[in-house]
Amino acid sequence: MSFCVARTGRHRQRYEDNFRLVSGCIPYRWRKDINDSKGQTEYIIEVLMLTSPNRDDLVFPKGGWEDDETALEAACRETLEEAGVKGIPRENPLGMWEFRSKSSQDLCHLEGGCRGYMFALEVTEELETWPEQKNRDRQWLNVREAFRLCRYDWMCQALEEFLKIMAEDRELYKQEEKVDVDLTQVPDVSTNKVDVDLTQVPDASTNMFIRSTTTTTQPHSMSFKHRLAAKDIIAIQFGC
Question: Considering the domain boundaries, does residue 43 fall inside one?
Answer without folding.
Answer: yes
